[in-house]
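TICKET #2291
ISSUE: user wants both folds in one file
ATTACHMENT 1:
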Amino acid sequence: MTPEPSADAHPLDQHRDPSEAAFVRGLAAEVAARYGGELTRMRRANGYSNATWIGDGIAVRLAHTPVDMAREAALVHALPREVGHPEILGEGTAEGHGWIVTAEVRGQNLHEAWPTLTAAEQRQAVRQLWSRAQVVHDASPSLSALVTSHGGFVPATLDDATAAAGRACVALGLSSAQQSRLHRIIEGYFQAAPLVERCVNHGDLALMNALWDGEVVALLDFEFAVLGPVEIDLCRLVCEARVSEEGRRVDSEAGAAAVEIAARQMDPVHGRALIHGAAALDQLRDLDIWLAHDSAEERVEDWRPCRLLTDLLDDEGGYLAPLLR
């Protein structure tokens, strides 16, 4: 079990070992100081796999675990300017933990801004978020050598994906029919993926990885960039626009815009299998993260990834229903 966080622990660290969270915060303070920043004057930004602080003209991202960010930094340096990624001021490692410092960019995290936007602004944001991602897709010939074919929620092999599905089946108590459908969906993805053109996907195309300043001004955090079918980014775009924080399907102009984009961009032959499989793999990865929390405060069936995964296994295909008909 994870030790109880202290009363002043940041909400993003509530499932982390308090001593480890404090260690990362200390490393981040040292890195920020190198670039004229003072962590106590900076605000903590959204993000799970990395801890991020923004302020004093800079943004500091530091990995929670001992991994470097050299590959991500190399990719960011190669991105077209139209992506809007903030300028990298420096990158390195501290006690094995990778870090990247970028210039602070004016704007609000899109996830935080989302509830305040009008329906028209949300629709606009979805389209602009996709436009930024498309710049990356179109630049794949020059970027593909900098990314791998697995990472984030995309497992390296079918065996890895099958193992994750097995863990989900046990944790969620899925029926035999649901288990069979889950395995078919995953197998369908791995069968179809080699048959379509691959591009460099952002890999985590979420609202929290974009900045909003009256429009989408930047696409951030390319740590999970992956070479694969475009449906990898499409499934995330549709999920972000059509699913609430609690994991409930919502009808909105933004959701309709995301479905329209996906219908236009999906592979005409294999797109349904790919977007359905990618969405299932996305939730399997999130479910593994939630299982690691081992929290008794909420029933497993109320967990967001549980709701979304079981939704994807119904006859209509959950939030992807309009695209699977």
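ATTACHMENT 2:
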Amino acid sequence: MPPVVLEEKWPVLGRHEQAIGWLRIWTDLGRAPRTIDAYARGLAEYLDRCEREGIDPVQATREHVAGHVREPSTRPSHRGANVVSIDSGSGLANATIQQRLVPVRLFYDFLIEEGVRDSNPVGRGRYTPGRRFGGYQRGLVPRLTKLPWIPTDAEWLAFLEVAKDEPSRNRVMLALAYDSALRREELCALRTDDLDPGHRMVRVRAETTKNRYERVVPYSASTGVLLAGYLRHRAMISRARGPLFLSESRRNQGQPLTLWSWSKIVRRLAVAADLPRFATHTTRHLCLTDLARMGWELHTIASFAGHRSTESTMKYIHLSGRDLADKLAKGMEQIHAWRIAQLAQLATDSSAGNA
């Protein structure tokens, strides 16, 4: 995203030379436009508050940043009834506040590297050996780690019942999103030459992924049937190679389907199925949890999902309950063996008494 767009969208950035300079560096380093946009939004929100409060952001203290954190955690959301869920019941969700703080923290890291500041007022939660009270330094905002929501079997069937009457494009997108555990961005960015129908494989290009890791993942035979039907239908819209999923609306006929259009489709189906928490990422969560339930190894699931670290994959292991179930089974085996041994001892004692 060109810097001029950032300055036009958030004028406050243009009034702070160091802020816009930092964002230009990230842009020149090739960060994804959506990442730059998120950084710009979070930093602009912080700088706006600094201007309202008469605070020089370069000289801001931890107390000033804490005031910035308090404000979004208590204010009502401007989206009102459109909000699907907010963890705290008021203000922004914990994950959103964490996300808004990231560009502020990185901006101060930049100022430290430039020699403008000596310390970062945002800080980060970290372990420091030798530090009192267990060595853990708490971040400004406690991080809440919650397991992703996945539908029950009955809820999943209810969703599919609603989706069965959808056009072939929407049905195959849902099937691929689950089969290959695709993120929304990866799904909508698929191209015709990413498919290998002969081996039922799909290539997820590095530039479309969150972590810039390319991977090749399979899809099921039933999804292959849906895909073949959609490709025949697609040929009636456009025979050109390129984006796989095309819009069929009057305004955007033959254009690539956008992320927002796909989100609206899934949201409409979720409302119709009375599953307001069902979102575009739910199919990915469900697939990875199912793989964990089937006993796939942690590193294999991470590779399939395109996770840079297995720490991201661990939540699906926890969500599946596999580790807990294994521990319970092993524990019960030991308890059972102990009880059998005690019963055997009882039988031995009884025989000795009869003798």
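RESOLUTION: both attachments delivered.
EXTRA DETAIL ON ATTACHMENT 2: Strands lie at 126-127, 136-137, 195-196, 201-204, 215-218.
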